[in-house]
Amino acid sequence: MAKNEKVLRFRLSIDVGGTFTDVCAIDEVTSQLRTAKVPSSPTDPLTSVLNAISALEIDLAEVRLVTHSTTITTNALVTRDFPPAAMITTSGFRDVIEMRDGTQEDVWDSFREVGKPYIPRRDRYEISERIDYSGRVLTPINMDQAHDLAQLFTKRGIKTVAICFLNSYANASHERAMRESLLAVAPEMEISISSEILPGINEYERFSTTVANALLAALVSSYIGRLDEALRNQGYCGDLLMMHSGGGSMTAALAQRLPLRLAASSIAGGAMAAKYIAKQCGFQDAIAIDMGGTSTDITLIMNGEVRVVQQWCVEYGHPISFPSVELATIGSGGGTIAWVDKADALRSGPHSAGADPGPAAYGRGGRNATNTDANFYLGRLGNVLAGGAITLNAKDAERAITDNVADALELSVLDAALAIVQVADASTASAVRLLREARRSLSASAPLIVFGGAGPLHAVAVAKELNAPLVIVPPHPGNTSALGCLLVNIRHDFTAMFQSLVSGIDPGALEDQFASLEREARERLAFEGIPDQQILLERAVNMRYAGQWRSLTIAIGKGQDSIPDAVKRFQSDYQSQYAYLNPTAPIEVYQLALTATGQLPEVQFRKHEVIGGAPVRQSQRPVAFDEAGDFIATDIYSRSSLSAGMIVTGPAVIEQLDTTVLIPPGFKAQVDEWLNLRVSEVP
Amino acid sequence: MTPAKQRKGKVKNVRELDPVTFEVLRNSFSNAVELMAQQFRLTCHSFVIYAQDFSCALADANGDTVSQGEQDIAVQVGTQHLVCKNIIEQFKDDIHPGDVFVSNDPYAGGSHFNDVRVLRPIFVDQELIAWAMANGHWSDVGGSVPGSFDVKAREHFGEGLRISPVRIWSRGEFRSDVAKLIVGNTRAPEDNMSDLNAQSEATRVCEREILRLVGRYGKDVVTLAFAEVICHVANLFRARISELDDGTWTTSDYLDSDPAHGEGMIPITVSLTIKGDQLSYDLSKSSPAVSSFMNSAAGATLSGIIAGTKRFFPDIPINAGLINSIEVELGPTGSVINAAWPTAVSGFVSGSFEKVINAIFELWSEIMPERAIACSFNLEYLLIGGRDVRFDHRPIFMWYDWMVGGWGARNGYDGASAASPLFGAGFASQPIEGQERLNPVVTTHCRIVVDSGGPGEFRGGCGVEKGGQLTDAELPVMSYCCDRSRSIPWGTKGGLPSTPQGLWLNPESSRSEYRGAVFSNVELVSGDAFSRPSAGGGGFGDPLDRNLGAVLDDVIDGYVTPERAAIDYGVVIDSSDPLIHNWTLDQEATSHQREYIRTNRESWLDADAEVIARRYRAGELAQFDLIRQYGVIVEWGTGDLLPETTRQHRELIKKRSVSGWRL
């Protein structure tokens, strides 16, 4: 062994967000977790990555694995920062992505409409070809036209193309022929074909997904190429894994083929961190709430898993039919504006003061009363945030609350501030209730796991509203996306059409279909260099009563009893989900699903010895709580001073760099062996 | 005084609940309705419900709506309380915990037979405090035609099963005999039984939530909150109305015709009055009922009034506070908007309903010019039924299809293209690939129709055209309903009309035949092709004032042809190489062309209509020319002039378009 050879002791994860870049590293020798947060570079995410790594003071030559999540794809979709691109489609169908399903997101406002297609009509081309529902060719593809298009694109300087033919899910040959024709003329072209990107029925979702994927290809390829090179220049020799929206990672090579899968990867990272913390604390079910400045993301963890949905979107009307962690987002955060409507009702949101001007207390010219202003007035927030980056101004907060709420409702400023926070908490609880209703089998004792700058301030009140017995605040509530990234396995989800009444299923055909999905999964994981023994394949079927439109995903095994077992599980899941059954109605399978995992060695965190002892307060200030109704002298603690086993009894406030935790009277926070705060009612 | 208290139109509220309890309960009621809607959406069987044709509401003990789903289909809003009150009136004291009622009676507040409403009374200790309601469009409720739309029906007996209010659950016992009677009279008994169940279970979710709130806040606080939430919306709405100037505005929109009375469009006349904080509508001057199924009964018309008004107040929730703040005079029964039993009403959406909405749009566009909008396309739906011989067991197929279309241009903005109808902006069209698997019909094309948006300074949204061909079908028959083949979506403030609707059989062949806007049970054979356009929306403002760059962009994108750019907008665009988007705007020719149109366009509207019709038949003039430049309406298949319709059309163009033109 050469003398200078380094030990590969670290696993590293980096999340580049819009405002901050977070990085986590676990030292596999000591189990110590290191984290850092740096401002994101406004111009180049690569700079953010490198800055974050250097902030951690880790030698990349000692890093075994890097996992990365980024908002570059989401940002490109939001800002529509796309290269010149074209879509080629079946003659007569170039408007599929413009007609969509016709629906409006706002069903009542004639002046709010769905955004235009990502590729404008002028750049959508038609070609003579047609395949029917069964895959039979009705009109052969016109190769002369195909060739002409290739020439035309060269002339127009178009290097990004989406090929979307009708019924191509049943027969991909025309799409492939079209691609070959383009590549023959311009081999460097970035082409996405719908039969490969999303081989399933229904043109609108398939075309929309394919178009978005094509538009991101050049961006992601160049970014990954540069990132890979920069990491290697600093001595990194491992794989680069990219977090995807489905709550797993994929290799950089695959990410270049499916760049759209990187959208929402940061959010997925947060959800995976919540899942991990739930498991760490011994819970199968949990509700994760991440409340930031302008919005709150809510995710449910059930049976130790984050639920994955098959369709989502960055922008309404542009569906992305790739698996994504299930999430509800509401416009409620620290900057959410409270206002009084013309009929004297106190409302919370949906407007937010955002980062600029921000809450009135920031003193940057904001005049509206926000949750942050109310929390600050109530003493729940101190006057210095983020380690001194922001100082709050009491007069501005008070004036905003007085002018916008207290006077209009003829309340004292104190009562107005309490009311603002209570209304905001109730609306967060309502959003959780809506998501929980859709997943009714969630355990009633599921705890709240809270993240984000504003989450731990509101968490106990929301938990009370929901009758959740416990609130968990992890040690680094502002660093969850990076943490989640560190924890995930390589994961891919596959689906195949298979529509049959349960009574008519041919077990051989079912097995064949699953076997073919499994082949595809193994091929993909082999492409990513995962050895066979690390591959985990899990089968499921999507089942419903015949005639229904929505289904439940039911795990299914192999062998003789697999179908009747799945039916039993369906009946019991349906009962717990919808509180009734149709015992005589026929049940059908309409889709097969396969989750393929490339298992990575599990991350081990350091467990702290539970010693206990009395926590030492840092200071005291008057804080108003809902229960007391007036200001009371309240102890303020620094999170970093709390060690495992300590108990902080409310009323109290615990401050840390990235958040503030509110412990109302009658509640206590216990520091566990992982340094999570567990907040619950004092019995 | 703070600025808040100086606001004009401020109504001082007397409210007993504190601000937090009030707002939390207000949110909780709407949350309870959303929870119910969510379960209904996840468990429904009817594909029409799945496409979002449903609504959910919570009412108080009197049946007054407290909260209504925010995503509810427009066509059902503002009517739930009528059905609820009808049940309360009929059953009086005979309403018990565990009861569930069902009704689809359009003559008692319902919309049409397909909209089956399920209502559950909510009790606290034997005291009725509220109602939960889940309403959905069943894909078939019997009658002589699949899908339950018999376009030829004069009376309801052929349309479908009328379910006057019945108890489907009695004190917790399911009355399967009654349920079977209902679903046994439909073509989809299994699906309908399942939906009856799904609806009933969805209302249980709302009940559970209300009882949770009662447990937390007490019955008295919850029922007080019902009243205050209703009052809150009334105050919000009245405050807004009182900010507006007093006055009365009147207009009419038109049905294509009354089949029993030859040609001539049928007016639906709406008057709107604002006085202080009171808004009133008067529709009593509308025509007598037509001899087709396009009439609406009182409930459906009220729904059009509420839905039309709501679009100018999108932020105000719908509940009894809004509904009861609007005075409505429909006049005596027997009219096209106040049809009496047993007049046929199943086609009311394509008929009266969307006309009421468009008329209301025109009135509010005068009052709130910043939200002004021209006329939008009309709901249209096609059904082909028969046997599918692609499979050995030759199953029955029902290709039930509806399209998106163009919305009216708005003050400052073009209209939305290819959007869901006014009937429900959340009502989804169906995937073509899914349809092709389920039916022996190949879709030949489905595309935006060039030039279909009504010209204007702001262009109307574009309509679409969908064509199909029957492949392996046995004894297929086709029925269709769309209206607006003659009553073309109109432009306003100088904007021009868009395009007509109507179906062509075997287009572009020797067997080409125009079948028009309404027909049923036309027999077809495999190999037959058909095509139908949805209309665009009307234009807003003088098209000669449209920004040249906007016209050029429309030409490059293929929303407007260079030919129509010259005729409709007076903009001359040449192309050296359209394939690489090499278009140029001829400024000088454009000035001349615009001047020429400006000087002559009024006189074109007085041209001899017979001569124009003849030139259409000779192929010298296009349909666009007739509608937009000459104001002439003909029978589109034969080219025969429709003199009365033309007279009406020209009068309307003068009122809405010419009056907005600069000389």
Q: Level of helix content of chain A?
A: 25-40%
Can you tell me the residue ranges of chain A where pLDDT is under 50 for at least 5 consecutive residues?
none
- Rg estimate of chain B, integer Å: 26 Å
Mean of pLDDT of chain A:
92
Oligomer: heterodimer
The proportion of residues forming helix of chain B, as a percent range, comes to 25-40%
Number of strands of chain A: 38
- The whole-number mean of residue pLDDT values of chain B reads 94
Instruction: Compute the separation of the termini of chain B in Å.
Output: 50 Å
Number of helices of chain B: 17
Helix-strand category of chain A: alpha+beta
Domain Hydantoinase B/oxoprolinase (chain B): 18-543
GO molecular function (chain B): 5-oxoprolinase (ATP-hydrolyzing) activity
Pfam family, one (chain B): Hydantoinase_B
InterPro entries (chain A): ACX-like_C (IPR049517), ATPase_NBD (IPR043129), Hydant_A_N (IPR008040), Hydantoinase_A (IPR002821), Oxoprolinase-like (IPR045079)
